[in-house]
Amino acid sequence: MRTVTDVAQHFLGRPRARLGRYTYCGTDGDVRRTDGDTSSSSSSSRKRLLSLLLLTYAAPPELPPTHFDASVSGGVSTSPPPGTSKRAPHGIIIGVRKGGTRALLEMLDIHPEVAAAATEVHFFDWDENYAKGLEWYRELMPYSYPHQITVEKTPGYFTSALAPGRIHAMNSSIKLLLILRDPTERVISDYTQVYFNRLENHKPVQAIENLLVRNGALNVRYKAIQRSLYDVHMRNWLLHFPLEQLHIVDGDALIRNPLPELQKVERFLNLPPRIASSNFYFNHTKGFYCIRSDGRERCLHESKGRPHPAVNVTVLQQLRSYLQEHNRTFFRMVKRTFDWQ
């Protein structure tokens, strides 16, 4: 692929060529002339073309890296297993961020009748992806057999204002999974992830108290707190889906003892019971359960289960007090309670 400099030299290096109409061909990234005029051009015309080339060949906005399979990314693809196809998901894990979505998907993927998408797709919450259409979305799903169900997870869906309506438009009877944990602990976990990400990228960091409190009062506009207002976001989902279509997984219980929570998920998804206690073992070094499946043992990424920072007791109490009323409202909405402080 040619660079901006290459293209500019290719055209501007010909003073006798008219720099009039050129067409950018998005399929191969080339710029082609569409007229045959070879009259001389002025310096200003050439400058205008250079500006056009810079705009045309400018790098697109950077998005978080998404490692899709080779057939999507343009690498060397392998033939799919006979009898398989890529299908839109039958179930979606909609959130919540830092609630245990990756653990839930990895554990659910133990089931032989589940085909799990490898990455967070962000189709329904990112406008630039949604504009690409359902066929683009389907291509990002794994190959699956007719007896399997496809499941994807994108934690950002739960807090997205647009995702519920968009998912409903695709499939109004789809099964939704929402994994939640103590909202106060989720705030701290959210902060911890951002903290380490900023450190790795050599960016400045702040103490959690400086983000939680502004001018002596709780900073309720802090995004990590906003994501823990489960009642606010659930209200939006219940405008589009009945409660019976959305199963809530207790993320704290999943950490303590995975099997009971996964058995509930199996029943919700109408899957035969295949996940057993032998599929899990407690890793004392990491401090959480890992997976044993197909003769292999694997644990979640080292970024999972990071120790949380100690939080000022007064600030922590402010946060808990603020979230308690939202928790009570949420319990009434979903007709169940959770053991959250």
Automatic annotation (TrEMBL):
<feature type="binding site">
    <location>
        <begin position="98"/>
        <end position="102"/>
    </location>
    <ligand>
        <name>3'-phosphoadenylyl sulfate</name>
    </ligand>
</feature>
<dbReference type="InterPro" id="IPR037359">
    <property type="entry name" value="NST/OST"/>
</dbReference>
<dbReference type="GO" id="GO:0008467">
    <property type="term" value="F:[heparan sulfate]-glucosamine 3-sulfotransferase activity"/>
</dbReference>
<dbReference type="GO" id="GO:0005796">
    <property type="term" value="C:Golgi lumen"/>
</dbReference>
<dbReference type="InterPro" id="IPR000863">
    <property type="entry name" value="Sulfotransferase_dom"/>
</dbReference>
<feature type="disulfide bond">
    <location>
        <begin position="290"/>
        <end position="299"/>
    </location>
</feature>
<feature type="binding site">
    <location>
        <position position="289"/>
    </location>
    <ligand>
        <name>3'-phosphoadenylyl sulfate</name>
    </ligand>
</feature>
<keyword id="KW-0333">Golgi apparatus</keyword>
<feature type="binding site">
    <location>
        <position position="189"/>
    </location>
    <ligand>
        <name>3'-phosphoadenylyl sulfate</name>
    </ligand>
</feature>
<feature type="binding site">
    <location>
        <begin position="304"/>
        <end position="308"/>
    </location>
    <ligand>
        <name>3'-phosphoadenylyl sulfate</name>
    </ligand>
</feature>
<protein>
    <recommendedName>
        <fullName>Sulfotransferase</fullName>
        <ecNumber>2.8.2.-</ecNumber>
    </recommendedName>
</protein>
<keyword id="KW-1015">Disulfide bond</keyword>
<comment type="function">
    <text>Sulfotransferase that utilizes 3'-phospho-5'-adenylyl sulfate (PAPS) to catalyze the transfer of a sulfo group to position 3 of glucosamine residues in heparan. Catalyzes the rate limiting step in the biosynthesis of heparan sulfate (HSact). This modification is a crucial step in the biosynthesis of anticoagulant heparan sulfate as it completes the structure of the antithrombin pentasaccharide binding site.</text>
</comment>
<feature type="region of interest" description="Disordered">
    <location>
        <begin position="66"/>
        <end position="90"/>
    </location>
</feature>
<feature type="binding site">
    <location>
        <position position="181"/>
    </location>
    <ligand>
        <name>3'-phosphoadenylyl sulfate</name>
    </ligand>
</feature>
<feature type="active site" description="For sulfotransferase activity">
    <location>
        <position position="98"/>
    </location>
</feature>
<comment type="similarity">
    <text>Belongs to the sulfotransferase 1 family.</text>
</comment>
<dbReference type="InterPro" id="IPR027417">
    <property type="entry name" value="P-loop_NTPase"/>
</dbReference>
<keyword id="KW-0325">Glycoprotein</keyword>
<keyword id="KW-0808">Transferase</keyword>
<feature type="domain" description="Sulfotransferase">
    <location>
        <begin position="90"/>
        <end position="326"/>
    </location>
</feature>
<keyword id="KW-0732">Signal</keyword>
<dbReference type="GO" id="GO:0006024">
    <property type="term" value="P:glycosaminoglycan biosynthetic process"/>
</dbReference>
<dbReference type="Pfam" id="PF00685">
    <property type="entry name" value="Sulfotransfer_1"/>
</dbReference>
